[in-house]
Amino acid sequence: MTRNLKILGLALVAVFAMSAMVASAASAQGKLTSDGPVTLKATETGAITANAQTAFTHTTVCPGSTITGHKYNVTPHGLIASGETTATLTPHYNQSACQIVDLGVPMTITMNGCDFVLHVGATVGTKYEVSTDIVCPVGKVIEQEVYSSSSEALKLCTITVKAQAGIKGAAGAPVLAQNTAAGGGTQDDLDITGTFKGIHAERHGLCKGEGGHPDTTNTAELHIDTTVKGYNNLGVETGVTISD
Questions:
Q1: In Å, how far are 37, 100, 205 from 87, measured between CA atoms?
Q2: pTM for the model
Q3: For a FRET experiment, which of 8, 84, 108, 227 has its CA 20 to 30 Å from that of 70?
Q4: Angle value at C-alpha 210, between 98 and 221, nearest 5 degrees
Q5: pLDDT tens digits for 112-141?
């Protein structure tokens, strides 16, 4: 009887150990890895609406925009050390190309010192889930100003996006980063694709109440399809990947 209990005990220990290993493998934390500190640069890929915002039933695009990534929460911006799990992202919008697609009207986006913060999460198969925060100086918001024409003589309304945290994809449809060497290049880089959901936005001005819709929403979305490359302190491209 004692021998049987010992065998059962060893079997349970083995089962628990195996379960812990499986759980660990399923939720391994990703981190950025590179040959030394880097600055990140993300460029748009995919269809024009693959990088867009949807809010209040409308879709906004700024084709040709880029994003730079720096060390998290450091001013002035610094390089990201290998092994980090978080980075500050600063968009650089191609303002002359920004428009609300379905209305065919131009708009501008003013960040007012706000940034996005990227968090690398756990593995999802061979990819890694990512989430983001919007961080702003006290009293500041992102302003998206909508105009009736390219002359910007008449401003129709302003959509504002305030600081908020924990923005991620839908359940079962996370925003994912994967390692790749785009275009057959020799340097490793990243592709980040998906839709960030549950973003709070407000609208002000002449288009308030347009279409009978409320002027505050918690269902705005940010669609992203980008290739991310790394650059060293000399501005020379260097490989950047995500690993466990």
A1: 12, 29, 34
A2: 0.85
A3: 108
A4: 50
A5: 999 999 999 999 999 999 999 999 999 999
b/e code 82-115 from CB counts within 10 Å (16+ = b): bebeebbbebebeeeebbbeebebbbbbebeebb
pLDDT in tens, 216-228: 999 999 999 999 9
pLDDT 10s digits, 139-191: 999 999 999 988 888 999 999 999 999 999 999 999 999 999 755 555 689 99
